[in-house]
Amino acid sequence: MDAMTPQVWLQLGPLGLTETVFVSGALTVLLVGVGAVGARIRAVREAYEVLYEMVEGMLQEMVTVDATPLVPLILTQWLFILSANLVGLLPVIASPTRDLSLTAALAIVSFGAGHVYGFRAQGMAYLKHYIEPNPIMLPFNIVGEASRTLALALRLFGNMVSGEIVGGIVVSLAGLLLPIPLMALDVLTSVVQAYIFGVLTLVFTASAMQVAVKKTVPETPTPAGSPT
Amino acid sequence: MQIDPVTFAFELINFLVLAFLLQRLVYRPVAASIAERRKEITETRAAAAEKLALVDKRAEELATRDRELDALRETIFAEATAAAATERAKLIAEARADADAERKRVQAMLAAEREAALGWVREVTVEKGVEVAGRMLLELVPDAAHDALVRRLFDVLAAHPELREQARPDETVHVDATFARMPTKEQSQALKQLLEASVGSTVRVTITEDERLGAGATVRVRDRVFDASVAGQLEILRDDARHQLAREHA
Amino acid sequence: MMTPHDWISIVSIVTAGFAVAVGSIAPAIGEARALTQAMDAIARQPDAANSISRTLFVGMAMVESTAIYALVIALVLLFANPLLP
After folding, report:
1. Which of A17, A45, A137, B137 could lock onto A10 through a cystine, CB 3.0 to 4.6 A?
2. What local confidence, expressed as pLDDT, does residue B250 receive?
3. Residues C74, A158 contacting (CB under 8 angstroms)
4. Domain boundaries, chain A
5. ipTM above 0.90 for this complex
6. Are the Cβ atoms of A109 and B10 closer than 8 angstroms?
7. CA distance A125 to A102
8. pLDDT band at A218, cuts 50/70/90?
9. Cα separation of B243 and B236, whole Å?
């Protein structure tokens, strides 16, 4: 099935480089290029500053910990996922987020980021959160973390693929113009999913950073609950 | 549906590289300039606050000066009021003194006028009194008085023998005798004898009648006048009364 | 004559359909309830509309994940059925 198995564009011996690799690589180059060039142009740079401050404010509103070190990670996720989602609207090119490999990689990054920031914030005390509230919960905690990482990957992947499949079916049934509202819906889904991916990463990472604080501050305002 | 390890690994690296590059090329400089801007804002605010504080201080100083000026004005006003009061008091005192002086002057003037009037009244009183006394005297006892007075004149003449000291025996002494009414022969004779005895030389007597004397007679021997007439007495009385009154009112 | 593979295919397709059907009903109800509650909350506190709608979006996406899982299961059954060669 086209929608789910990306085409291999270049075969280097045993390594098959798929469309996902090329498109995401191109997006990386594009984002870095736009970012780096824009940062050197005064007006664009000032727009960046405004956006950066806005994002920082948004993130800080959602968590009680200091969100400043998390801004680059979350902002990169947003930019990358959003552009990867939206690039699927172009003809010929398929969205790279339709590939489970990519979303899994992003979810792993998110998972790893939680641990990195958790260790950085609390040192070895971070590991204690696995045996909270008591050691019996250890397996449940581990499964919980694994499942929410999996859920991150699958949510993004499923949303993008479902949009693609529905769009394909509608096109095959009804012709050319009808998919346009669905594409508009796709845009919405793309933005919302990118936003949610970033926000969930933020929430997980922030909760990893403040496990120790959680005891003294019972109410931790998290916009999203624990993932399924 | 499967996870392709190659793609997975590539995407992992891809994302990390993307994050690294964006962090290096975009986020860090942007965040740095944001921080710089915030610092600038903070500094500007601090400077503004400093200036505000300065302005406040200046305003405080001005207020203090204002208060001082107020106090100064109060003092000056008080001094001026005091000076005005003093001046007013002085002026009032001067005016009062002036008024007193004027009043005294007027009082003196009035007193003088009264005095003059009183003097005039006295004068008139004396005049009238003497006149009335003379008239009464003449009206009541004209003849007795006349004779009594003549007798008395003779007594006086007899009691003045010193007239003789000046006399030279060969000289004839003129004597003027004035009578209120013509004397009798005996009287003239008696007079002539008395005078000759007194003077010690020949005497020629010129007798004249003058009703103005009222009663009595006067005799002038050389530079001496012997007066025994009512007019003369009244004259003496008048002079006495005048002197008396003048002494009392001096 | 039906081979076992044919039976597996038939059962997989039917199961995939049911998975999507049932798996979308429950999240749809859940999302609808969340939406009505959010509308209620916004009507009561228009000031908090921003924060409420943001939370609503995230929450809806989370709920929708359930439907997506069902879809993934269906897709696995249809296109990556482990019982079929």
Report:
1. A17
2. 67
3. no
4. 8-214
5. no
6. no
7. 32
8. very low
9. 10
